[in-house]
Amino acid sequence: MNKEEYRNRVNGCWMGKNIGGTLGMPMEWERSRNQVTYYTHDLDGKPLPNDDLDIQILWLLALEDKGIHIDAKTMGEYFNEFMIFTHAEYGVAKTNLRTGFQPPVTGSFNNDFKDSCGSYIRAEIWACLFPGKPEKAAEYAFEDAIIDHGDGEGVYAEIFIAVMESVAFYIKDIRKLIEIGLSYIPEDCAVSHAVRSAVETFDAGISEEDAREHIMKNFIGHLEWHYISEEDEKKGYQNGKMGWDVPSNIMIIIYGLLFGGGDFEKSILAAVHFGEDTDCTAGTIASLFGIMYGVDFFEKKWTEPIGSGIVTYSIDPFRMAGRIPATVEEFTERVFKQKELAWKELGLAEKEEEGEGEESSWHAKPYFQNLYDEMRNIRYKFPYLNVRVDYCGEPVITQGEPKKIKLVLSNTSKSLTADRVNVYLYSRDGCIVMPQNEVSVFLTMAHMGAGIKEVEFQVCAEGPLKPIYRFVAEFIFEENKNRKTMHVPLVLVSQMGTVREVKWEKKGPHAVNNLPRI
Fold it and tell me: SS3 for 364-385, per residue?
């Protein structure tokens, strides 16, 4: 794929995001059948703003500042500092980040929305940076998703979509894209079940209307406070598990793609007809079409009314003034530059140069799903040493009860076969560390038998609880071969209060969803 073709596809991706997002935004999170055939907002030559695109622009800014080696911690800093939207998983993650937690704890702790839709909707940038490199796209999608989805289904959803879109630069067969995407996520996760259910539903010849009924009966989450149709409420579709939103919406995307049979309009309209997170489902479908066919694929009736501008509303407009791309074309050029820099830095080559002709090469390698072992550990990398922090459950300290913290150490030295690391956990006033503050750990190289060791400490609070306890674990090689003292922050919080059962009341017009009694 030459550079001009790549630019055309990436431009199509962002244009598609604007088309689908603008089409679906007016019906976002409405639980009803939406019988629309075209844009319903006032057409003024601009797209509607959408956080689906905003956060991907934020990741571009992070890449421009920090380079391709960004991880969840770096992206988390940008997310906390410059992303001003604070609803649902976004707000939970920002609160956890401000407390001092790091991903994936920021996306798991106190987060009822880790199974929601906020991550897969921003997967396109990783596909565009790594066209035809689904494993690399998936790795970055993982770092992205754990910020606000931790160990939830939202992580699997972003990886699934990022893989499909990465491969879509070379393959246009939707079923093959689905198959490849599924190979990167656990077979027993809810996203995988939803995707397979969409395929089975379509293959069984079930109508669009009946397919929606199937989703409503088996996959819906809680609707919060948005519109619900009288018909759906009578059928009992008004409530589900809080935050359980990504399985149903991924199923809508896959059914819409299959139902459309390659017809763009039929696919995005089907997604909006189903209701739920309409701007995200339609936007993802349209982006996929843009990647497969390029920006010229879209008819003028879809592009001219909204133009090629970018309108943001969730990136800090003051601190990022002058840095936000004004058009999809500018966004494309800046992504292109980052792609060129990334491939040079990472030593990647275009597919044709690699001679990979077999479609099986797109599928996940057996080792890939080992990545999911990291969904509950905070990772720190130092010269010669990697440290993983495992809070062994919630990072919560309770008065008089020991709280276990596990540190997993691995010696990554390529020159020495063994070394000893001294570990010291600095305590806080009002806390004791058991069995002791300091231990010595012998490590061979990580690929050898004793190259990875676990160390456990127990922290116990004495006296009145404080809201937050901050600790530091210090690591020093016995011979101090890297001449550095390495530090890892640890945070524990105290929490009071119990969750009360919500009583739902109907207020306002019939079509308004039940609201919690305050």
Answer: CCCCHHHHHHHHHCEEEEECCE
452-504 pLDDT, tens digit per residue, is 889 999 999 987 889 999 999 999 987 766 668 899 999 999 988 888 887 77
* Gap between the Cα atoms of 121 and 393, Å rounded: 29
Please state whether the peptide bond connecting residue 104 to the residue before it is cis, i.e. omega within 30 degrees of 0: yes
Of 197, 191, 222, give the one whose Cα is nearest residue 123.
Answer: 191
Q: 257-281, pLDDT tens digit by residue?
A: 999 999 999 999 999 999 888 999 9
Provide the 10 A C-beta neighbour count for residue 122: 25
Are residues 273 and 34 in contact, defined by beta-carbon separation less than 8 angstroms?
A: yes
Amino acid at 339: K
**Letter string b/e over residues 157-170, b meaning 16 or more CB atoms within 10 A of that residue's CB:** bbbbbbbbbbbbbb
Copy the structure tokens of residue 202. Answer: 């379509």
Return phi, psi of residue 380, to 5°. Answer: -130, 135
pTM (2 decimals)?
0.93
- Alpha helices, H only, 88-207: 88-99, 105-108, 124-129, 134-149, 153-167, 174-182, 190-203
Count CB-CB contacts under 10 A for residue 207: 10
Give the span between the Cα atoms of 411 and 386, in whole angstroms.
7
Q: What are the C-alpha distances in Å from 23 to residues 41, 248, 250, 305, 376?
A: 8, 19, 18, 11, 37
State residue 206 phi and psi, 5-degree precision: -70, 140
**CA gap 153, 375 in Å, rounded:** 11
Cα separation, 502 vs 440, in Å, equals 50
Distance CA 139, CA 132 (A): 14
